[in-house]
Specification:
Layout (H helix, E strand, L loop, with lengths): L4 H10 L4 H13 L1 E3 H8 L3 H13 L3 E4 L5 E4 L2 H26 L3 H14 L8 E5 L1 H13 L4 E7 H15 L8 E7 L2 H10 L4 E4 L5 E4 L3 E5 L9 E6 L1 H12 L4
Parallel strand pairs: 5-6, 6-7
Antiparallel strand pairs: 1-3, 2-3, 4-10, 5-8, 8-9, 9-10
Length: about 260
Amino acid sequence: MILKQEVVNKVKEHFDLNIYETKVWLALLSKGIVTAGETAEISGVPRSRTYDVLESLTKRGFSIVKVGKPVRYIAVEPKTVLERMQTNTLNKAQEKITTLTNLKDTSEYGELVQLHREGIIPIKLEELSGHIKGRSNILSKLKEMIDSADKEIFIHTTTEDFDDKSRVLMSVLNKINKEKVKLKVSLSGDQYKVRRLASKNELKVKESNQSGKFFIIDKKELLLLIHPENAQEEVGVWVNSPYFANSLISMFDKGNL
């Protein structure tokens, strides 16, 4: 059996196998049904290790034991292996999600929250700022900010940026108490796109000529996106500054944004 090392490495990585397991499984696939001794000869794996490797592959669903003398091993087709791995991954992910969801109800989580509250109190508001890099991290921060809103949410960005983030943004915005929390949205860009986004998301949107991107919560918490429009990676600056936030909102209310 001659395979390029690149292929062996990719199979090893994608199917989460070690190098011996990879070589033995490939040997099984190439012959269909073989003995442990034949597997060692084909794969190049030491015979003393072949039995353990075959047992491991059988437990994980990569091979089947054919009872008899001598014992033979049958390769499970890649499609079946892949489908089983997908199912197992989804099941493990769901179990993890359930565990994380239930974590909020534990005493340990309560202690973590209390520890954070006690640690954050001595910090001055003007000292609260941070640099956020990456789309997923920025979206996560936006969701956190919107969820914490008590009085007002102000969004000013481009039509392209809002459209890109709309699925995540609207999933959170649709949950806010609109009688309690005031929502203001200002978008720059093509007028047709502005109106289309307003209609699609059932929002009252103000058209703007400014291309800045920022999100303000309760006139004190601000997330400013500072990357170029077509940048490969998003970059943002988060600041807890009532003065800065109010200055931007004041410019908006006066029609300067």
